[in-house]
Amino acid sequence: MDTTQLLKGVLDLAVLAVLDGADGYGYDVVRRLRAGGLEDVGDASVYGTLRRLYSAGHLTSYVVPSVEGPHRKYYGLNASGRAQLETSTKTWSGFADTMAALLAGQVAA
Predict the structure, then answer these.
(1) With bands split at pLDDT 50, 70 and 90, how would you rate the model's confidence at 109?
(2) CA 73 vs CA 23, 27, 28: distances in Å
(3) Which residue of 10, 14, 37, 74 is 20 to 30 Å from 58, comparing CA positions?
(4) Could you tell me how many helices (H) and strands (E) the chain has, helices first?
(5) Burial zone of 92 (CB within 10 Å; 0-12 exposed, 13-18 middle, 19+ buried)
(6) Alpha carbon distance 95, 81 (integer Å)
(7) 71-88: pLDDT as tens digits
(8) Separation CA 18–CA 81 (nearest Å)
(9) Which residues, 6 or more positions from 30, have their beta carbon under 8 angstroms from its beta carbon?
(10) How far apart are CA 28 and CA 87, in angstroms?
(11) Three-state secondary structure along 48-83?
(12) At a CB cut-off of 8 Å and minimum separation 6, what does 66 contact?
């Protein structure tokens, strides 16, 4: 199964979940997603998702100077982001339960 389509559908939720643990800058979020098992996640997809979630009002951002290169823009969840994470988690859990039942052959006739 091609996981790229699945990943597109859950990337917002995955990014929110990663940022719920701790604020992070773009590549840090990519690294944490990959370490969490989403090895195929693309840098550009994550950066686009961060921008979209920020524009939607779910994230805060701030810049931290770096002595090793350019300043880093960090993102964190705000109240709206936490509410979105909670809603999306419930939606995902319900969907995953439905798929598990279908795959187990528990389809109502």
Answers:
(1) low
(2) 10, 10, 11
(3) 37
(4) 4, 3
(5) middle
(6) 21
(7) 999 999 999 999 999 999
(8) 12
(9) 41, 43, 46
(10) 25
(11) HHHHHHHHCCCEEEEEECCCCCCCEEEEEECHHHHH
(12) 72
Note the residue count of the chain.
109
In the block, residue with structure tokens 């052959």: 105
- Alpha carbon distance 57, 52 (integer Å): 9
Determine the straight-line distance between the first and last CA of the chain, rounded to whole angstroms: 27
Q: Tell me, what amino acid is at 104?
A: A
Query: b/e per residue, 5-43, with b = 16+ CB within 10 A?
Result: eebeeebbbbbbbbbeeebbbbebbbebbeeeebeebee
> Of 18-27, 34-43, 59-68, 99-108, which gets the smallest average pLDDT?
99-108
Q: Kindly report the pTM of this predicted structure.
A: 0.89
